[in-house]
Each structure stands twice: as structure tokens, then as C-alpha cells.
């Protein structure tokens, strides 16, 4: 199942110059409707790379920290379910284990992702035809995921080792992993992480952006916070379900440490299916869909609200009338 690609020529779908439309909408509304003659309202303004980069960093970091703090226990349960082999019991204590250390990585990783995604998306939307806007969103999402993975993978390794009770604190985890496994231990499961997160990031953001475009065409206005939240939840839940098998593989490879039970991605899949059955590849799908669905709702609503606040602050102030 791929992301929905909306072939939207918004200039032809909303005609603003006809007498009928002028009669239907007052002058104040005509100005706002003209913003839908392009895919993004940002298209009407000169592209300022540094401003978009900065706003993306701040908005992404804020959204990432809020989501991670609110939903960390669900993520911990999901990780423990996926790491448990057949017959193993799940313990329910310490559901916030590793949160502080994880936030230290989530903040810059989320900031880098959105900081790369936003300017890349806006630049590509100017280059690609409007009926290929989905390609711009897919490409920007994959690029943002690739760059941020350099921060996200070590963060994920430390977090999941702590969630499964291997270490008591993030500094101890980093020190002991590097001592016993070398620096490459912090990047355990890196290939599986990219295999999961590049398509995940690309598909999730593409679904979200395309649904927003379609909604804005129909509603002929900008979305409010609840609408952004619902669309974000839907995009997150669908993408989370699709990529669950990849997430199981990533978890197993990251938490195995020196055990070396799995020798790469293919061996990991074959071993899981042989020893635990194909259903094991869907372990934790319930908490994962719940976590990412709620997380998508929070992340995208916080992201859009923060971007809006930052954009309002960057507007030149009008002089007060005497």
C-alpha cells in the first residue's frame, strides 16, 4: 500500500477571476482564497532557506520532545514485546527507563529531520509539477530521515537497551556499549533502521501532506489544530502498521548486543520466522499503531502550531496608527 498521490492542479480547481465567484465571495475572502492557487501558501513568498531551516529546527525539536515525553511508556511496552522471544514474560516496571537520555537525542534528531525536510520540500514543490507533489514529499521525507538517522540510531540503541533492562543510565549505556562493542555498537541495526525509517518517514509525511492538500482544496481554508491532529493520527497509524515487521527486525538487531543471535537482516527474518512463526514479525503492532497514531496526532498538531507561531513572529510589524 503506497501513499495516496493527489494530482492537484489547484489553479484549475479554484477559479477566482469569474464574475460568479466574485459575487459569491466578499473581497476579504477572495484574497484568502487566492492562496489555494498553489500547493503551499509559502509559494507566494520569496524562499528564505535560512528562515525555513531555523523554523524547521525549532518546530521539529519541540514536536519531537512533546511526543516522546507523552508516549514513552507505550514505546517501552512495544519494545519489550518485540524483544521478547517465544514464552518470555514481559515486565511492566520502569516504563520511563531511559527517557532523559532519549530526549537528549530526540531533540536534535527531530530538529534536524524537520530542519532538512521543510526547506527541501518547499524547494522541490517549486521544481516539480503540481501533479507530482507527492514525489516532493516522499523525497524530502526520505532525505530528512537519512540525515537525522546519524543521531537517531545511537539514541534508539541506548533507549532500547535501557528499556529492556540492560543498563541503568544513558551515560553507562554509552560507555559500556563503546567499551565492549566498539563505536559501531552504537549503530547496531543501522541498516534495519534505515530500511524501516526511510520508507516510514517518506510515506508518513507524504500521506499527511497529501491529505492536507486535499482537505484545503475542499475546505478552501487553512486547517485548524484538531484537523491537523486527526490527519496526523491517520497518517501515523497507517504507516506504523505497514512498517511493523521492519520495526521488529530493527529492535531485535539493536538489543542483541554481543549475543550475535542474528547475522544481518535476512538471517534475522529467517530465524524469527523459523523459531517463532511469521506472526512474530507483527509483535507489538497494537502498541506501535497506538503509539504512532497518537504520536502523529500530537507531533503534527504541535509542528504546525509552532511553525505558525514562528511565521507570525517573522512577519514585519506594521507601524501603529496615530
Automatic annotation (TrEMBL):
Segments crossing the lipid bilayer: 52-74, 95-114, 134-153
Keyword Transmembrane attached: yes
Keywords from the UniProt entry: Chloroplast, Membrane, Plastid, Repeat, S-adenosyl-L-methionine, Transit peptide, Transmembrane, Transmembrane helix, Transport
Claim: Plastid is one of the keywords in the record: yes
Cross-referenced InterPro entries: MCP, MCP_dom_sf, MCP_transmembrane
Any one Gene Ontology BP term: transmembrane transport
Principal subcellular localisation of the protein: membrane
Solcar repeats: 51-123, 132-214, 227-309
Family statement drawn from the similarity comment of this UniProt entry: Belongs to the mitochondrial carrier (TC 2.A.29) family.
Protein name according to UniProt: S-adenosylmethionine carrier 1, chloroplastic/mitochondrial
Lineage of the species this protein comes from: Eukaryota, Viridiplantae, Streptophyta, Embryophyta, Tracheophyta
Encoding gene per record: LOC120280640
Amino acid at each position: 500500500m503506497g501513499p495516496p498521490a493527489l494530482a492537484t492542479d489547484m489553479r484549475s480547481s479554484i477559479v477566482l477571476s469569474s464574475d460568479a465567484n466574485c459575487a459569491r465571495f466578499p473581497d476579504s475572502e477572495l484574497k484568502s482564497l487566492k492562496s489555494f492557487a498553489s500547493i503551499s501558501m509559502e509559494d507566494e513568498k520569496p524562499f528564505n532557506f535560512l528562515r525555513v531551516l531555523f523554523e524547521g529546527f525549532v518546530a521539529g525539536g519541540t514536536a519531537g520532545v512533546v511526543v516522546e515525553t507523552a508516549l514513552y511508556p507505550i514505546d517501552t511496552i512495544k519494545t519489550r514485546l518485540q524483544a521478547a522471544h517465544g514464552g518470555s514474560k514481559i515486565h511492566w516496571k520502569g516504563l520511563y527507563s531511559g527517557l532523559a537520555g532519549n530526549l537528549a537525542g530526540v531533540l536534535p534528531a527531530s530538529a534536524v529531520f524537520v530542519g532538512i525536510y521543510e526547506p527541501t520540500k518547499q524547494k522541490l514543490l517549486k521544481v516539480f509539477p503540481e501533479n507530482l507533489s507527492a514525489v516532493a514529499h516522499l523525497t524530502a521525507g526520505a532525505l530528512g530521515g537519512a540525515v537525522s538517522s546519524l543521531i537517531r540510531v545511537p539514541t534508539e540503541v541506548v533507549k532500547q537497551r535501557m528499556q529492556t533492562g540492560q543498563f541503568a543510565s544513558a551515560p553507562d549505556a554509552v560507555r559500556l556499549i563503546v567499551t565492549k562493542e566498539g563505536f559501531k555498537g552504537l549503530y547496531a541495526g543501522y541498516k534495519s533502521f534505515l530500511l524501516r525509517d526511510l520508507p516510514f518517514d517518506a510515506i508518513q509525511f507524504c500521506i499527511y501532506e497529501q491529505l492536507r492538500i486535499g482537505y484545503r482544496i475542499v475546505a478552501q481554508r487553512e486547517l485548524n489544530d484538531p484537523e491537523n491532529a486527526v490527519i496526523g493520527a491517520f497518517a501515523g497509524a497507517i504507516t506504523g502498521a505497514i512498517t511493523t515487521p521492519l520495526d521488529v527486525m530493527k529492535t531485535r538487531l539493536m538489543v542483541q548486543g554481543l549475543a550475535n543471535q542474528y547475522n544481518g537482516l535476512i538471517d534475522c527474518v529467517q530465524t524469527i520466522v523459523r523459531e517463532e512463526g511469521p506472526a512474530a514479525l507483527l509483535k507489538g503492532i497494537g502498541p506501535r499503531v497506538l503509539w504512532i497514531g497518537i504520536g502523529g496526532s500530537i507531533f503534527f498538531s504541535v509542528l504546525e502550531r509552532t511553525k505558525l507561531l514562528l511565521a507570525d513572529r517573522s512577519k514585519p510589524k506594521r507601524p501603529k496608527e496615530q
